[in-house]
Design brief:
There is one protein chain. The chain is an alpha+beta fold and about 375 residues long. The protein has helices spanning about 50-75, 90-105, 105-120, 130-140, 155-175, 200-210, 215-230, 230-235, 270-275, 300-305, 315-325, 330-340, 345-360, and strands spanning about 1-10, 15-25, 35-45, 245, 250-255, 265. The chain has a 3-stranded antiparallel β-sheet with strand order 1-2-3, with helices on one face. It has a 3-stranded antiparallel β-sheet with strand order 4-5-6, with no helix packed on it.
Length: about 375
Amino acid sequence: MSVTLREKSIKGGEQKSLYLDFYPAIRNPKTEKVTRREFLGIYVHSRPSTENERALNKEKRAKAEAIRGLREMQIINQNYNFIDKDRDNQSFLQYFKETANKRDNQTWQVAYTHFFNYTKGVCVMRDVTPKFANGFKDYLLSVKNIRHENGEVLRQNTALAYYGKFRALLKQAYKQKLLTENVNDFIDGIKEEETEREFITLEELRTLAETKCEVDVFKNAALFSCLTGLRYSDIEKLIWEEIRLDVADDAVIRFRQKKTKGLETMPISQEALELCGERLNPTDKVFKGFKYNMTQTVLKRWLLSAGIFRNVTFHSFRHTYATLQLEANTDIYTIQKMLGHRKIETTMQYAKLLDEKKKQTTNKISLKRK
């Protein structure tokens, strides 16, 4: 491989354009096109008539020679980033949008919408600096929630979720050599805020199971979450192919978590299996017709009918599974595996919650008359 500095006369003949000649030709890894030339945008006088022009020519040729040496080393190291001169001008905003669409995830979509608003619809690769990224973090911590009409500022953990998607995108863009530096190395994330994990008691769960719900598939999905600890996203996409029988004819779920992408094998009880209904085709959804909007409307009316007036969300059913398992003396590491948590610290939050509930009972029995 050789890289040679050459000169080409341009129109008028008064100047020459300096360019690099690659031999053999190299292939652009992005366009797949083969090229032998790279014009440097450096021009020298064809016939310098003054000492100043001659000195300027010498200086420009020295700079061109330095670039030639650099290119030669880049080619030896198979680093062809210099070919893509338009990289810095590529739209980071479009890149974000395309990635969000591929992920097919609501959190990604809302994160993109916030980023669009932050950039006012204009952002190219060269704009993405540590200062710019920190500015987006500050924006998320002060902006109003666009998914609700109450005008409240985003909760810290919600901002954390959106900023997490943005940081994942930065990592991906750097890995694909769209960004010249790993911006994540120079920025801090948003700290997770410890929140109260609402759950229902075993007695409330039994009451809920006995209470009629206007949408049967929603009731079955909710109770299934309580018995398995699965998130809404995993229940909504669950297909019959993922529910299998093991060697002892016990039911197990073999699925990939939508949130963590981890592959899980989870045994489920006979009661949980019965909630799935009649087995259909392998690619059919188990809870067909189960929709996200039901978690906002149908759930509230069902809870009221059961006499439960607390702020219980669909995710509370996952918390319910964890706390009821702890109350049944299931060890914390088994619960971690069943919930698919990567870190035991995440599961330990339920143990803290249960301890707090126990403390609240200490003053309920008193020898003193009131």
